[in-house]
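Fresh eyes needed here. I'd like your take on this protein's tokenised backbone:
***
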Amino acid sequence: MAGLIRTILLFSACVIHSVHANPLQRIEVSKNVFALIGPMEQRSETNLANNANFGFIVGERGVVLIDSGGTLKGAKAIEAQIRAVTDKPVVLVINTGGQDHRWFGNRYFAEQGIRTLTSEQTLADQQARGDAQMASTSRYTGESWHGTDVMPAKEMVSAVTDISVEGIQLQLIPVGPAHTGGETLVWLPESGVLFSGDVVYMDRMLGVGPQSQHLAWIEAFKVIQQLKPGKIVPGHGQPTDLTGAERDTYRYLRFLRSAVGQLLENGEDMSATSSIDQSAFSYLSVYEQIHARNAQRVFEEMEWE
């Protein structure tokens, strides 16, 4: 009987650990520059809405954090990853977009006296979609949502801005609408590393949602091409180079625009988007769930151009 009880207790401990385990994969992409790679799945109680990528840069006396997580617990999980590398304090949080996991952890860091910063368009998107995203994210994350108090970034820039903090040199580059209503790139010219936010998707199919603007997204990607980064930490998926980003993001966006444009030229209606052969991109995660909807959304946009 005692043996059975010990087995049950051990099993329970394993379950508890798995539920609260930090699902983020930490990768040092350059000296003192780290990517935190989240799972490519829907938000859940287990992943704390950290189903995206984050990052941090360790400076002389402090740390710059890229995106703050999707819940209070998600922010703490990101902080734990930083603490596994350094005990230097976080001094600045930068939000790359208006999607929940980019900024729902802001308040946790702001209450420690840490600055939160983004671009004007990203801030506008946070303010516009915050309530709707809170409703959905709290539903998906269940018990893990408790304690989350959403706060948009407190500071903003309206143009390309050079920032120097704790020996870290970076640029904030607003690129406007793409996957969300306002995306912001974080460029580290010294190391050639770019944190792209949701302008770049790797390994999984990007989503063209109601908040997205696919043509502006293509233009935003061209800014990345001009930078010629050596390494890209995408919004989702593994770190890559420019060739990989072009393959999984830029090529797909241009393909959709061309295919839908041909349908419109032929006088077809939206139902014809089901005839578009997207199988060349079927290697991407969530292809089956999202490819048809992407084509429909691009059709909706192009109808009114």
Summary: Helices lie at 2-20, 72-83, 100-103, 106-110, 120-141, 214-227, 242-265, 287-303. The two ends are 72 Å apart (CA to CA). DSSP finds eight helices and twelve strands in the chain. Confidence is low (pLDDT under 50) at residues 1-20.
